[in-house]
Structures are given as C-alpha cells and as structure tokens.
Amino acid sequence: MKETSNMRIAGSPYPASVDEIMATLRHSSLPTLIVEGGDDVIVYREIENRLSHMGISVFPAHGRPNVLELFRRRNELSATLKLAFVADRDTWVHTGIPREYSQNCLIFTHGYSIENDVYVDGRLWKLLGKKERFCHELAEILDWYALALSRHLSDQTLSISDHVNAILDCSHEKKEERLRLTEGEAWPHALRTLLWKKYFFLLRGKTLMALLIRNLKGQKIPYNDKALLHSVSIRPGKFLKKISSDVERCFETMGVER
Q: Which residues pair with 83 in a beta bridge?
C-alpha cells in the first residue's frame, strides 16, 4: 500500500471507516505513520519527507477517535507491519494521558494540538504588530473557554469548539448568557489563571489559530492557517522536532532500517 492523502471508499465521497482502514492496512508492508488527517497532514508530510530514508508512509485516519481506535486494534494486524501513531493531546493536556494510551508507538503533541506546537515553534505571536487587540480578545476568549472547558471536563458532550467570531462578535446579552453560571456552579478561577499563563499550549489549537488569523487580517501579507502550518513545518522548532525524533526512534525500535 502507498498512502493516499484522502483514503476513501472507491467511488464514495465519504472517508473510509476504521474497519475499511484496517482492511487496507492488512495489505500493507510499508512502515506507516497513522495521523488524524486534515490540516495536520501538512506538518506530517514534512516529517515523512525528513524520514524518507526509512520509507515511512503517512496515513490520514480522518480524526483523533479513529487514530485511537486503530491503536487499540493494532494487534489484529500482522506483527510484521510497522505502525506508529500521532494524535493531538486534546483535553488530556489537562487531565493527563490515560495509562492504556501510554505506549512508545503512540505519540502525542506537546500542546493541545498540532496547531499549538506550530504556534510556539514558529513564535507566531511575533507576526502581530500591536498586540493590544489580540490580548483583549484573548482575555475574552479565555473567560468563555475556562467555563466551557470546566463543564466539558465533566460532560464531554458539551462543546468547547465554538468559533472565535461567534464568541467575540455576538451581542452583549449573548456574551453575558455564555458566562452565566448555573445554580450551584462556581467560577473556575484556577483554570482561568492557568489558561492565561499557558494559553499557547492549553487553549484549543484551532481556536488559538483562528484568533491569530483574525488579528492578522489587514496586514500587507495575507495569512491563513494552512500557510502558517506549512511555513513552520519546513523550519521546525523544538516541539515539531521532538515529534519527528519520537517517530524516528519508534520505527528504529521496530527494526526499520535507515
């Protein structure tokens, strides 16, 4: 099997299911790096290029749940198939990685998601001219995010993925409604303080990147998230290099030759 950027059922517009990906992997002999897919593929393609001497193939699995399910079911595949997995740390950046997912062949981002690692590696805040508006809007986002996240950690059906424009551009009444506590609920002061100190790693990555792009509009150079991901991935810093080295080490331990 040679990977394709969008593994789909032949003739179908829908992404392949986990069962279908498993069926494809059963016919593979390449060392394969399974990633979430979507924008993160931009970053992992560079790792694939960097490790081309090992013949590693990147395989988008269409989402973090699929990556984790494929990891759980990896023993259903041939022991000769060399597999490694990379996934966003997601809210485990707050709660810790569960023991069943603490394996060398399953690599996580350092921050909430690959966008956070890119933001820090690329020092993307330096693209901002005056930072006053960004800081003001970041504070408003973190007020909402702290409360939304505290609720989400208790009930994962509650969303933390609202778009920054929906949060920042809504009416004053809607903003008050978003921050209104329910009966018996306490304001998450400690979480809000932690988020402010380490927003670059702890705020949901797509939210952080959307806030950055919103504040970069109007500059002479047009920016978008995909271009920023690509720009940083070809000049990786500490955190993207660590993912790359962890992937390389993982395949080396499996006997994949240089």
A: 32
Sign of torsion, CA 186 190 191 192?
A: positive
Strand partners, 85: 34, 106
CA distance 131 to 125: 8
Q: What is the pLDDT of residue 16?
A: 82
* Largest Cα span, the chain: 61
Structure tokens at 161: 């993925």
Dihedral sign for Cα atoms in the order 195, 144, 153, 104: negative
CA angle 15, 16, 19 (to 5 degrees): 155
Contacts of 16 (CB under 8 A, 6+ apart): 7, 8, 9, 24, 62
How is residue 197 annotated by DSSP?
A: H
Give the bridge partners for 108, in sequence order: 87
Query: Which carries the bigger pLDDT value, residue 16 or residue 25?
Result: 25
Task: Judge residue 142's burial from the number of C-beta atoms within 10 Å of its C-beta, 0-12 exposed, 13-18 middle, 19 or more buried.
Answer: buried
Count of residues in the chain: 258
